[in-house]
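Reviewers asked in the last cycle whether our approach scales beyond single polypeptides. To address this, we selected a multi-component target totalling 654 residues and predicted its structure end to end. The input consisted of the following lines:
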Amino acid sequence: MSTESLRIVWIYPDLLSTYGDRGNLLILARRAQLRGMPVEVMEVRSDQRLPATADIYLIGGGEDGPQALGAQRLRADGGLHRAVAQGSVVFGVCAGYQLLGTSFFAKGVQCAGLELLDLSSDRGPSRAVGELAGDIDPRLGVPALTGFENHGGRTHLGPGVSPLARVTAGVGNDGATEGAWRGKLLGTYSHGPALARNPALADLLLRWATGAHQLPPLDDTWAERLRAERRAAVAAARA
Amino acid sequence: MPLRAKVASSVSRTAAALSRAAGRGDGSVIGGWIGLKIDPDLLAHLAAGRAIALVSGTNGKTTTTRLTTAAVGVLGRVATNSFGANMPTGHTSALAKAGSTPYAVLEVDEHYLAQVLQATEPHVVALLNLSRDQLDRAKEVAMMAQLWRAALVNHPDVRVVANADDPMVVWAATPPGDPARGLRPPHVTWFSAGQRWHDDSWVCPECGHTIQRNGEQWWCSGCPLRRPQPQWAVEDDGVLDPTGAWHKVTLQLPGKVNLGNAATALAIAAEFGVRPVDAVSRLGAVTSIAGRYAQVDRDGRNIRLLLAKNPASWLEAFDMADVAPTLLSINARDPDGLDTSWLFDVDFAPLRGRQVMITGDRAYDLAVRLDVNGVPFQHVRTFGEAVRAVPPGRLEVIANYTAFQDIRAELDRVN
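The resulting structure, written as structure tokens, was:
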């Protein structure tokens, strides 16, 4: 960690906060605090400078206009690039995931991304809306992904990134893979509070940020019940 | 009315009655659907000759429609879609059922406002608010505002009554006009009903710059869009009218949000010539609306039902609810929207210190949310279990759409 407390930045909640995106911030802060880590949370609006010294950066979802504006301002600001160069963790969701790549489409126009992940996004034939599930890259040591997606984009991964998961239900990137990761950067189409349904993914981000190999376990009874219920719902829908 | 419309109207009423008799709902959708099949212009035919007000927005439209109907009732008979069936089929059915009335007040789903404006040529349209709601299938907020704005350009003669506190509504209500087609922007009367929810209006819909706020004022940092001076406003426990006169409003409906709805209703009614002094007492006679705010006594508990469908309406519900044991129920069936992620847009902290119970199809989503929020809770499997778990006295029930209907069914479909 950069300082004694874990610093979490939520990037541009005024532009990129659509589907309960605040949830990811709250969950990371809560899980760190329950383990006795002091946490400092910063919400940085799009008319403010982005600090380059935080441990975790979160980027949420948004409509086309705000997504394009957000990418433009982040490129001009440069803070996120400096933070990544210093080893910070970045977690992008939906529109926030797409803009980490080289390009994406907003309002029918190709927009330049931040080029932090080797991927590009375009428009799919139809909107992907519904439950999303997949088996996460075994190297990450995290159980199956469960979430909800709502996006019109399709994302193509380059050789510089690995898929976050192999899709078992829903669409994700292209119906086969979902999300992407490289180093301490991770993106997913599982929108909003993805970490509410995937507490192990939250802990992965916390381990990346702190360098800890293991974190004390927490009582995840309710999250486990929610995961089981969603698994069953996806299975029932398929049957 | 043309013969075809007469037949369609009569068949529509019969179908609605049959549907009710068969116990398949209140018949307001099926009746209208059949009528519109026979005469696609039936809504326009039924609307002709009536002075009509349309009420639209994300939240508060059912209650505001009910209050406005009461207020306009000062002048004569008013047709209204009181069952919350707020699409053209529901409007058709409501007007057919009411027969000939000089007035109509219709609640309109946000997505259908342009269509219903076209069909009914109303005297007034009231625009309440726009916020995120069921994003897995609904239009996003800025897109909705754009649709309203585009629709209003085509109706320069409609009187608009709009919420000065919501930047998206203000922008939607003030289209630039279209001089090439001889269209000027419609006349707007502004009301201030307060707005607790700000998270969908940080970015100016006109220019993309940040909206700044200070107290009740708001303004865009990049263009002239700013809060207009309202002619109607809530002050203390009453409403200020455009002449500066203050009217005490005593409602049986809880919360500051309903005082705002009352101010809106008085502003709409005033467009028909209703004096607020004549209408306020009628507002006080409204007790509950299709189960919303209804109170039922059971086993020594006084159960009150509050409907909350999206983040903005949950904030209002917490404001309305007494500090008392509270049951929260969440479903994610089709009418609710399938996506529960909005639960993280709601801060449940106001419930700390109250006995909280959770239930519904998606109780586990709520459990995880409350856990993160530091709000202790108890999971109950049935409504009866919740009633037994609380001491005699008030039990507040806050539920989203189908969860609300499920609980209402347990209470013998209380109105």
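The CA atoms of residues 127 and 162 of chain B lie 5 Å apart. We regard this as preliminary and will revisit it once experimental data from Aim 1 are available.
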